[in-house]
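Dear colleague,

Following up on yesterday's call, I've attached the two folding results inline so they're easy to grep. Please treat them as preliminary; we haven't cross-checked anything against experimental data yet. The first protein's sequence and structure tokens come first.
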Amino acid sequence: MLGLFRAQRREHLQPVRLCHLHDAECKCKLGHGGNGEVKLYQCKEEGKGKSCCDQYFVVKILRYPHYTWMSSEEKDKICKRTLLNEYSIGMMMNHRNIVRTLDVDLKANSLIFEFFKSIELTEVLHNAFINKFPTRPMMKYFKQLTEAVKYMHSLGVAHLDIKPQNILVDMETGLLKLIDFGSAIVFKVDGLDTSNCDIVRGTPSYLPPEVLGKDSCMLDKVDVWSCGVVLYNIVYNQMPWKAADRGDYRFFHCQIYLNRKELSPSVFPDISEKGFDEISSGIVHDLFIGMLQSNPLSRSSIEHVSQMLMTLEEEIGRRDDPLAFFRQSGEMRRPIRN
């Protein structure tokens, strides 16, 4: 309800009332998960004296089919509460790197978003890896991600499920957008921190140790940790560890180094072969050290990360085009995805 309260106080965007969607045609299913599915619709309503608008919309439908122990009424209440939270937070957002929320349909337990022709960052990184493209230009995607997160934090909102599957890239323009605010929480209202780790529901492999260990946490620093793991995905095209838990040897091994402000050579090997020179390698090195600190008080803020990325951009040059390699190789994949 905090998200709804805060959204009502902000007037960044007004809802786009899509009352004509009942005449829309479902074009395809874009994806599905344990709690529902996402579909692409095209408007086919014909206005007075006008042909149908043919506009595309993305519709996220919540169902909770696996909650078999609940009655349909209980599941419906959860759906509506979740939808209202995601809708109210989504309506606060007005940023080029965040997908726009358009409307909510509580009768159909659905959320409606702008259509963004794109592929997941996961696929972009996989294509870059198998074609042996340099990693350095991919840092432009990471910079866009941090700009989206910095904007969210300025509104007092934490995403809490940042991962490549929730990051979309337009393969024609290089524009990146962050999606899926189903786990997002308003952690600050009128300057007062309302952080509560007990309600964090993100993806375990991208969550910091204080969340997995159910310790006290700072929700904005949870996002910073997740971004640090995404940075590792971008640089190395794999996960640094299975989970940020002391039972995970790679994580425990890395933290011994990170506590000394160093990186484990076995987990963070040299990146000079990925297009980074000595100075830019040093900046990426410092980004990892700052973002992956186990103590959230010692972890970098997203503002500090953004400043470091500006320095990196000045160092590697603004002319790096992450799409140039895809164009040259003919590996431009453009599946419709959201």
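Below is the second protein, in the same order (sequence, then structure):
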Amino acid sequence: MSEEQNRTVQHKKAMLEALKKNLGIISKACEAVGISRASHYKWCDEDPEYKQAVEEIKEYAIDFVESKLYACINDKNITAIIYYLKNQGRKRGWLNEYKPGKDGQQEEQFKVIKEYVWGGNDNHKGASGDNKLSSDASSTGSQPNS
């Protein structure tokens, strides 16, 4: 193996470690290793093993962020709860906008969230003064003031 090939192998190893440390953020990892983004992308194009390792790091980063989202949900963070439901609960009627249905499914879903977050207490009013979860509650991640 030539000196240049050996240096490339060492840079790839260092880059994979830096990607792990920086949760897959390429620019930060490149800066830490002292290589260009172009080198990283060239390695991805030319080296299937390197590319696979990079993909695994991306999956690790997603797992890490999901665990933080679940921690926020466990802490009753309304923003995290609604974000999760809008992205993972679409088949159950959770949408990016409120559309009252004939069967009242979304109303019932909001009641379930209110029960979980505020213990069923209907004294929590949204920005518009109604008893529904409002953009005020979902943007701050805390219960709105009464």
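For the second protein, one point worth flagging: Residues 76-140 form one domain.

Best wishes,
A.L.
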